[in-house]
Amino acid sequence: MADPSFLILVVDDEELIRWSLQQVLASDGYRVVVAADGGEALARLAEAEPDLCLLDLKLPDCDGLQLLPQLHARVPHLLVVVMTAYGSSEIEGEARRLGAVDFLRKPFDPGALSLRLRTLLGQGVRDGCRVE
Fold it and tell me: Which of 20, 86, 96, 110 is most solvent-facing, going by the fewest CB within 10 Å?
């Protein structure tokens, strides 16, 4: 079971993905807040400081890579895991350059996601290194 003090922000425009991730993460013991776009994500940061953000690249109001630096500007210690169905090695490299600690290609296995998040949050990764 995860430490219930950890708060995770899920940013994805697809309602089913937000709902599914919220269910998986809550069942793992995390507190979860969700946002459907970049504006809503920034509003959520004004309400609370999450420990980790699952950030989709394709959002209706902005590109996830444009949002990533804004998230870090507001919450410098925030761990950001980028997720996308349209990833390439170039996009992954850019996401990491901008501060993402991991990059997930959709669809992904919920069990594997749970393990990755436990590892990231357990180690307190704050320096952008990849956890395998």
Answer: 86
* 3.30.470.20, 3.40.50.2300, 3.40.50.10950, 3.30.390.30: CATH of 7-123: 3.40.50.2300
User: At residue 54, what are phi and psi to the nearest 5 degrees?
Assistant: -95, 110
92 and 70 in contact (C-beta within 8 Å)?
no
Question: 115: which 2 tokens?
Answer: 């393990």
Phi, psi at residue 66, to the nearest 5°? -75, -30
Instruction: Express each pLDDT in 70-99 by its tens digit.
Output: 999 999 999 999 998 887 899 999 999 999
Check whether the bond before 110 is cis (ω within 30° of 0): no
Tokens of 90: 């170039």
In this predicted structure, the answer to whether residue 29 has a pLDDT above a threshold of 80 is yes
